[in-house]
Write a structure and sequence with these properties.
The chain contains 10 helices and 27 strands. 20% of the residues lie in helices and 34% in strands. The radius of gyration is 25 Å and the shape is globular. The protein has 3 domains: 130 residues, Sandwich (Immunoglobulin-like), CATH 2.60.40; 302 residues, Zn peptidases (Aminopeptidase); 95 residues, Immunoglobulins (Immunoglobulin-like, Sandwich), CATH 2.60.40.
Length: 547
């Protein structure tokens, strides 16, 4: 058991306060769940104890995939749940369910007749994030990088070492009992492998914070900086974070084929996002080990002075020294960038950070779209690229001279610490304990027999066929002449399609939506169709896309 120390943290700005009182997480035990299918009530009983007798917040979450993810939406809960719950035995929660929860799970990969309940107890003590940072081990990271950069990791010039490196990453993930999966990455007649490791959140399992980096190299380069530094930093961050608990899920991805046009991250964003996953932010390591205090050791791409005049002037004022880490964000990633900047300032004050915020989704600055964060930008997700400047600082970039001897472990450790603090706060580190029940059944009808929620909805919006495999007809009733907007949103709340219907006459109208006409194919799952008219929502309907 790892000791925890109390810390009062700001919600957004990270302040470091040292306190010494030892605190243990609550202990949850004896979780049982009994379903009364006649009355559609599930009774969950549990015992809970907090060593310091703190009042706790109790969360009930439900899994439909044997405990892999706890994302089944639940409403109408009562009993010993919520805030201000004290220690005790035979605590009881009542969950009243409806058949419509079937529409929130993927058909064939989840079961609403074989559910698992999880009880999480969170006490009032905050975790001292400084304790996490003190565990960063530069010797361990150096050893990992030394191994990875002994030869190229590339299909033509270093296939064996690429595969050995992949096995090493997998072994590290397995040592920490993460939910491990693999994704094939087809590219130009070859196939790579994304390695995906998931550490579930305890109260908000669907919301996910990513820490990523690619493990392949460019042709014959041994790739110490590009990108053994990223893999070593990700593995070290993973090693430390998985000793703690968080509201949100953490996901660690070692991308393959980044050097092949971002093939690995494009494959994940296009085909690998689970239907329930709400991507909150991505921290992407892209070359984090090269540092120099020599004047004129840092150059800038053409036009940098026009796009980022303040940062350019700061570079000139410091005699163009390559002594900082760049965190690049697009316009939609400002929240995550601000958190990284504040955490770096609070926890690693001697780490110099150059923050670049790019207009729009970042595509206007190609030099800042060259790593695995970019596909997340293009889909509207928050992401940061953490980079030492690549070829604008490290002249060994993409050459046989990209070796470990040129790197600065002190600088790299500071970057990892700032990222570690950011991830801990963004994933909402907590002091919690949890336990799960054995499986229980709800005896819900087959999905095809269940009526979609809100299908009638005053007769204003209908969808058929529903579920659908390719295209769906959306029929709505215009009660009066005017302009109407029909929007399709993913389960994560992301807009995926919008139809503007102008000057519609009263009566029925149809829109046919082909879900696979998107730039990147949508995954199967739940989507929400919302009809607006006169500046307000008129109706909505849940539609279900199947494979």
């Amino acid at each position: 058991m790892i000791n925890r120390y109390t810390l009062l943290c700001a919600m957004v700005v990270c302040f470091v306060l040292g306190v010494s009182a030892q605190n243990l997480p609550p202990v949850v035990s004896n979780v049982t769940a009994i379903a009364d299918t006649s009355n559609k009530i599930v009774t969950v009983m549990y015992d809970v104890n907090d060593n310091e007798n703190d009042l706790m917040t109790i969360h009930l979450t439900i899994s439909g995939d044997s405990g892999t993810s706890f994302v089944v939406p639940i409403e109408n809960v009562s009993g010993d749940v919520g805030s201000s719950i004290s220690s005790g035995t035979t605590k009881t929660i009542y969950w009243t369910y409806t058949d419509t929860i079937a529409w929130y799970l993927i058909k064939g990969s989840s079961s609403l007749n074989n559910l698992v309940a999880r009880i999480t107890a969170v006490d009032t003590h905050a975790v001292n994030v400084s304790d996490l940072l003190s565990q960063v081990d530069s010797v361990r990271m150096y050893s990992d990088m030394l191994y990875m950069s002994k030869s190229p990791r590339q299909r033509v010039y270093g296939l064996t070492h690429l595969e050995d490196t992949r096995d090493t990453i997998v072994s590290r993930f397995e040592q920490h009992n993460l939910q491990l999966s693999y994704q094939n990455v087809p590219f130009s007649g070859d196939t790579g492998t994304n390695i995906i490791a998931r550490y579930p959140g305890t109260t908000d399992d669907a919301s996910t914070v990513f820490i990523t980096g690619h493990y392949d190299t460019y042709q014959k380069s041994p790739g110490a900086d590009d990108n053994a530094t990223a893999v070593a930093g990700m593995l070290e961050t993973m090693r430390i974070l998985t000793n703690y608990t968080f509201d949100r899920t953490l996901k660690f991805i070692a991308f393959d084929m980044e050097e092949d046009g971002l093939a690995g991250s494009l494959q994940y964003t296009g085909h690998g996002i689970p239907h329930y996953e709400k991507i909150k932010g991505v921290l992407d390591f892209e070359m984090i080990g090269y540092y120099s205090e020599k004047p004129n050791s840092q150059s800038a791409p053409t036009g940098f002075d026009l796009l980022f005049p303040t940062q350019y002037q700061a570079l000139i004022d410091d005699s163009s020294r390559g002594n900082f880490i760049t965190d690049a964000a697009d316009s939609y990633s400002t929240e995550l960038q601000n958190l990284f900047d504040s955490c770096a300032k609070a926890y690693v004050p001697d780490l110099k950070v150059a923050s670049l915020n790019i207009p729009g989704n970042g595509i206007l600055v190609p030099d800042l779209n060259r790593s695995d964060h970019a596909p997340f930008w293009w889909l509207g997700y928050q992401a940061l690229m953490l980079s030492d400047g690549a070829n604008y600082r490290n002249l060994a970039y993409h050459t046989v001279n990209d070796t470990i001897g040129a790197l600065n472990m002190n600088f790299m450790s500071k970057v990892v610490k700032a990222t570690l603090a950011t991830a801990a706060h963004f994933a909402k580190i907590n002091n919690s304990g949890y336990s799960v029940s054995t499986a229980f059944n709800l005896n819900i009808a087959p999905l095809s027999a269940i009526k979609s929620p809100n299908t009638e909805n005053n007769g204003l919006l209908m969808a058929y066929p529903n579920p659908f495999t390719n295209q769906v007809t959306l029929e709505y009733v215009a009660e009066k002449k005017g302009n109407y907007i029909l929007s399709i949103y993913s389960a994560e709340g992301k807009l995926v399609k919008r139809f503007e219907e102008k000057n519609q006459t009263p009566g029925k109208h149809q829109i046919i939506w082909n879900a696979h006409e998107q730039q990147i194919d949508l995954h199967s799952g739940i989507y929400n169709a919302i009809l607006e008219g006169g500046g307000k929502k008129i109706s909505e309907n849940i539609i279900y896309l199947e494979d």
